[in-house]
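call fold(seq) -> tokens
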Amino acid sequence: MATSDRELRMGVSDARANLTEVIAKVRLLGQCVVLTRREKPQAVLVSHDFYEQALSDRARLESLEK
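ret:
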């Protein structure tokens, strides 16, 4: 169910059953994993580096808005 090289869509049950592999794809390959339930996106797994960068970007944007 891959949608691009950087993003993978996967059902929550499949992700749970293959959690070690999913984490490896996120951490080592830099893929974002969109978790779905009944084909609707529920959450996204991203690497810790991506998350930290997103937090930093958000803080920077919020400070620019003030």
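The longest strand covers residues 32-37.
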